[in-house]
Amino acid sequence: MRGRLMGKRVTAGTAALLLGGALLSSLASCNGRAAGPQPSEPAAQASDTSAADEARAVEALRTWLGEPQPGTLTISSVDVSSPKDTEISKQLSGTLDPATGTAALVGTKTVLTGSSTNQTPLRAVMTADQLYTTSAVGHTPSSPKPTWTQQDLTLVKPATSPHSMWWTVLQDLEKVRLDGASEVDSKSATEFTGTVDAAQIPSLAKLVSTSMVFKKAGTTKVSIDLYTDLGTGALVRLTYRLGLQLSVDATPTATSTAGYEVDLTGLGSPTVSASPSASTPAALDVTRGGSSGDICQLILF
How far apart are CA 155 and CA 162, in angstroms? Predict the structure, then answer.
């Protein structure tokens, strides 16, 4: 009899515990909270803050695209599609004013073949929807003036925009992720990263399918970095890249034989360019046509 009473008391106690647990769960549900472990309040707040910062970064980009400020433009590329052990890299830098569609860039072309290195100077001038490029190669003492090659920039921009296809790619960026603290021009900044697949933008379909840049990069996905001022939230730098990483020992993959990067910094206060002003070269020094080179296809305007 005593054993039965004790068994009933245990059973009754267990039932009370279960009933109490169910009551607490019900109360929690009534209060709008699911039962079980809940995320800590600071963690939830941090997530909300990051999402808000990411949205503001995209908005800062759109603001700049609406009223673009001059900046220091740097175009870099590495190409390992040439014969074995040959790597061709280019880098040009100078002032870009996207509002007027003008730029003046100077840099070098470097050819690495085995243990030998050959460098030649490069110059590029963008004005009136035309790109003029020149190199010291082939100049003679009797003809000190450079010979320029002229390329029509309207051939590498979508019909739906007065700007380059890269402008359209940047406009298509809708989401970025917070990368963390950074520094731009010795000032604190925040870095964000996102990706846009240029092949998914209808107005770029023809340009992407015929572009040597996308073909050699082996991808149509463009990685975009945004840097915003820590205080004002304004865009202070942007970078887009695709293909191989830029390095002196770049190695081709099954799909990619080149890498490209375009960086625009000093927005609103570009570094003074060492290049001459963006003025049209004399007609006698210009050769029209030629292939649409990577500089022509990469430049932001």
Answer: 11
Handedness of CA 273, 278, 282, 284 (dihedral sign): positive
CA dihedral 91, 92, 98, 101 (to 10 degrees): -120
CA angle 87, 93, 98 (to 5 degrees): 125
pLDDT tens, position by position, 40-57:
666 666 677 799 999 999
pLDDT tens track for 228-273: 999 999 999 999 999 999 987 788 899 999 999 999 999 977 665 5
Please check whether residue 278 is in contact with residue 79, taking contact to mean a CB–CB distance below 8 angstroms. no
Q: Which is more confidently placed, 249 or 90?
A: 90
Cα 223-227-229 angle, rounded to 5 deg: 170
pTM (two decimals)? 0.80
- Contact status, residue 261 vs residue 91, Cβ threshold 8 Å: no
Cα gap 215→260, rounded to integer Å: 12
Whether 106 contacts 277, CB under 8 Å: no
What are the Cα distances from residue 278, in Å, to 106, 124, 185? Answer: 11, 9, 24
